[in-house]
Amino acid sequence: MSKRTDRYDFPRFFRAFSERARLRLLNLINDREVCLCQLARVTGLSESTAFRHLGIARRSGLVSVRQVNKNRFFKLVSPGDPHARELLRSVTSLMAEDHELRADLKALNEVLSDPASELACPPPHESAACSNGNLSHLSL
What we know:
By secondary structure, the protein is mostly helical. 46% of the residues lie in helices and 10% in strands. It contains 6 helices and 3 strands; from the N terminus they run H-H-E-H-H-E-E-H-H.
């Protein structure tokens, strides 16, 4: 039996939601673009761990990444498959009810609303990276 290539890769899609750390990251980028350093700091993950988790979600088609200088900005994107879109809506609705995920959002909102915060990321036009380390050797 030949494998159909016109089907959405649902195993990869579900893998994106299979770890709590990825759920936390996906929740933070649900409705906005967020810098990797802020995601790592809010969740308490190292930048390389957050980057790895986001790479898995990106390969599932759920995350876009934009690089400005040394800063990487991630955002949740809607999948092309209508069934996957409906599943994503359900998952994000469930995430909105989770206490830890709501606390993460509150922490991120505080960071984003206070540019003087030690967790604030420099504006994308500045040449200084907000990352503690250079992640250019990592690829998504």
